[in-house]
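Form 7-S
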Amino acid sequence: MITNSFFKKFFILLFSTIHILILFINSSLALQEVKIIKMVDDKIITNIDISKEYDYLIALNNDLRKIKKTEALKIAEESLLREKIKLNEIEKFLSIEDFDDTNLVNKIVVDFYKKLNLTDLQKFKSYLSEFDLSLKEVEKKIKIEILWNQLISSKFSSQIDINIPKLEKKIKEENLNIQDFIEYDLSEIVFQTSSQKEFNTKLNEVLSSIEKDGFNISANRFSISSTSKFGGKIGKVKDSQLSQIIKNELKKIEIGEFTKPIKVANGFLILFINNKEKISQKTNEKEILTKMIEYERNKQFEKFSQIYYNKVKLNTMINEN
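Output:
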């Protein structure tokens, strides 16, 4: 008697075969031996997929070239695993094919190439071609992240709690609209542990990696934050947007240095100062409040995103070949 389990295995094998055949159609890949590295539920990850992800991560963070390729490929494999896990969960509720918010995708594309110090879309396309990547491939990855964020928002938006009166009070009491302020250019590593012993081990690994390969590569290697693909780069943040604990830690270090681990809601945070600048100007209170609300919302959103991802990963069948 043929069971449902038989049909499921048959279709997974069929889809896997089709995926590999499609890869072989591409003449640039035809000379490579294709191997299935992982099965993530009904999706496969091949060595070709990992090589492509490696190119993508290198394009976003050239510092990855500084480490052994085998190590960088391992980072790419983990990155691709996270994407497949997210995609499997997204497809239970949403469809990438139905996604049509081109304005949002275009906005994120602009953010991407600005982070790479490129000035326009054509230069970005040309840059991607150097890594055998197309804009369409990057846009697909952006869509996955947008749909994941929409999924998280639908599940947790009611739990995001921002104390606006408290922020308004902070603006008035600290005269944030007229005070001199420091604008930091920051990068981050966020990591999680389940025990003090694991924390000590992980921290030693992170610190050793920073000393050996630098902060950007270490962010790719260890950070669970969405900024990891850009080597942990957050960008410019005004000190008024930061919590007092984080401000206190940043005051202890200079440009080119990083903080000790700071306990945050979704784990531990290490911040690196790429640059900082003292700015003196009068700013509209509403503008300050808007940016503070956005920063707080993003912080809470990131926490819920990681909690949900961890839960989904636990319930995902991952098989290694």
